[in-house]
Amino acid sequence: MGERILIPLLLSFNCLLLAVAQDITKDFQVLKSLSDSWQGQIPNWEGSDPCQDWYGINCRNSRVVSISLTDIGLTGKLSGDIGSLSELDSLDLSYNRGLTGPLPQEIGNLKKLTKLTLVGCGFTGRIPDEIGSLQHLEFLSLNSNNFAGPIPPSIGNLSNLTWLDLADNQLDGSIPVSSGTTPGLDMLHKALHFHLGQNKLSGQIPPKLFSSKMTLIHVIFGSNQLVGSIPETLGLVTSLTLVRFENNSLDGYVPLSLNNLINVTDLLLSNNKLHGALPNLTGMNSLKYLDLSNNGFDKSSFPLWLSNLKNLTTLQMGNLYLDGTIPNLLFSIANLQNVVLKDNHLGGTLDIGTNYSKQLQLIDLTSNSIEDFKQRNDPPQIRIILAYNPICTETGLMEDYCTNLNISHTKPQNNCQQGSCSPDQILSPKCKCGYPYTGTLTCRAPSYFEWRNTTLLEEHLMQEFQSDNLPVDSVSLTLSPNDPFQSFEFSVQIFPLGQTHFSQQNKSRISFLLGKLSANSAFNFITGNHDDGPNQTSNSSITAIIIGVAIGGSSLLLVLLALAGFYAFRQRRRAERAISRSNPFGNWDPSKSNCGTPQLKAPKQFSFEEIKKYTNNFSQANDIGSGGYGKVYRGTLPTGQVVAIKRAQKESKQGAQEFKAEIELLSRVHHKNLASLVGFCFEREEQMLVYEFIPNGTLKDALKWKCELALSWSRRLKVALGAARGLAYLHEHADPPIIHRDIKSNNILLDKNYNAKVSDFGLSKSILDDDKDHVTTQVKGTMGYLDPDYYTSQRLTEKSDVYSFGVLMLELITAKKPIERGKYIVKVVRNTIDKTKDLYGLHEIIDPSICSGSTLEGFENFVDLAMECLKESGVDRPTMSEVVTEIEDMLRSVGLNLTSESVASTSSSHRFEVSIVSSQQDHPYSNEFVGSSAERLYSKSEPS
Question: Which residues form the Protein kinase domain (predicted)?
Fold first, then answer.
């Protein structure tokens, strides 16, 4: 009896040991692969168990959960093998400048990762979109690399993220915000830090980026290429303490809503093109550091409200066309230290009064109109600069305040005896020679430090080093020789204790500690050179030893598993070869096929594995719609392009040759008002079409929003024109011509500029030469838009699309569905029209959101054209090219430029841009097929 129990227990124990051993072996092999690709010197990576005192490795339950290899001179690339460390929750490879190349897409496989820190490395390429799948990520710091391309919108999926630092890279494009199914940074409600400065970001700051749901404390967008206004919505984020938009091309007015930011201590808006009246920021009573310099504000006298900012320490308002005299009340602000008002028109007498701040250190009035300076008998130790003022230029005075132009800080020399060190060594503040560890400390919040007193920060850093038992003797900070109010930089020298140099491990520990402090305070550290003294760390090699598991039968089991895997692999390859032989796309060359002129961009043939990767294994999160064709998934290509991938369900699949014929048909469609085909997949019995993703959803969704996000009349005309141009191209310029057969508001998409694009060609039909006037075919379409002539005769012509377009025109002016509450919109309009009345008497059914604040010029002509399109006989309807001409004439009467890519309302009440959010039920890529109920639609008993 005991043996019956013991044997299963032993077998279970053996299986558990085998599983653990396999996990350890797997992690070991991954780390060995990483080490081989890095070619770096990693101390103490010896033996076959990484959980046994390997440098920088932490384990839990015999699995690697943390890697911290900061500043140890790694070179090479980060291998995609990193994605196999499935239990990893923290990865820090910061300050290894030799780490280059792209960040691998496999980083998205680290599903348990909470902290990813790659500061000060040499990574290049795009930040992979897969980073948005790290749902547990809380800390993401990729600053000070060479990442390029746009910010991945998928970062918006990181709902637990509190720290986002992408500063000091080469990122470009716009700031992503959510739209429809596309995520964006506005979704990061837990984020405390947006550090995006020192990049090449362009476009406007989206108003949607900020909301009252956010908990941000730092917003740093300085030194980019941003344009447009500072959004009013910024004032909703009342938790903010730091706002930096300096060194951009922002214009417009400074929003009054900034006065809601009562916790902001640092506001930097300098070096932009802001205009209008100089903003009154009285409500921002926590301000310590204010810089509005070098903008285009209206000329004004010196603002008196500044004296209400009782916490102000530094004021910068240079080159702002300020005139008048400076009230001495300004200098009485208790904590005021620096006043920089150069390049203005301030005049009269400079008088700092008797109640000036005891903290006052600098008054810079270079290039103003100061005529006199009222000095006290015992002048305070304040640096005053009045160069290029009448008091100096007209009187010829040689006072210090006329000649002292340099405001940079010079660190006082120590009292050490010089010349006692070798040429390559540096003398420490404690008069010891050595090789210091160097770097640069950059302030994020400039009010955090007293610029002329580095001693406090030096003492603070020493306390941190000592508490971490680091062998540090002294710290020396020197303010940047550049303008301290522009660079905010300190040079750092950290000297070793009891030796001339730091070991590699201690340098790594110092950089790790400084990086940790940077993540919790107002500065950012970047390591300096790496030749600061000899390196005595030996070059440890990693021995390739696989754990031998002394369990009976386990070795044989592994061999059998390997053989089974190899056999399955061989069988799979044979099957794939068999499928490829029947694949009509195997040797397909789009430029030599029937798909049109070779110079047009042909669709790309994607493999199933590629599509699987782009859609995150067809995840539910990427499922954005469904229809008669099948499901639609959002995907992102390696180029960063977002696409919509239609995956055919079993009953919708065609024969191989028929699918190829459809691809060739769609390959001929190239027009700015048509959604373009990017590629396709025909593999493993899959049929998938890859379309461009249109960000602003469908016209159907746009018409749902009656008040907040209404479409103006002029915009609706432009949408109608875009859709008409797309159809005219299909009918008259495609070769052979194409009938869409399913025109409806759900198949009209709106791009980022709200230009219309006709989409979904799943029901489209080519008109071959022998078809001539019509095609006899099974009736397909969508109820409410279906041409009654086509339905009764089953003869399809281009005029069937014209009828559907006429229904679409009525939908544009009423915002009603074609069939709503049993009423058919065509019959309702036809029975209501009274041409003797204004707007044809259609006031009751016109969408009220297009009437407010604007005149509907051309409305009657638009209705007349719609009714022409809706004539019962197809031969009586206009062609789509004639429809295009008519709508163009209407737009000219409204005064719109037809060459513009965007739609700007002529009414001031419709100047805002709208963002349309699509529901999954009515996604732009879904299909709605008509059934037998179509007969009821056109029956004589249809209620009006």
Answer: 618-891
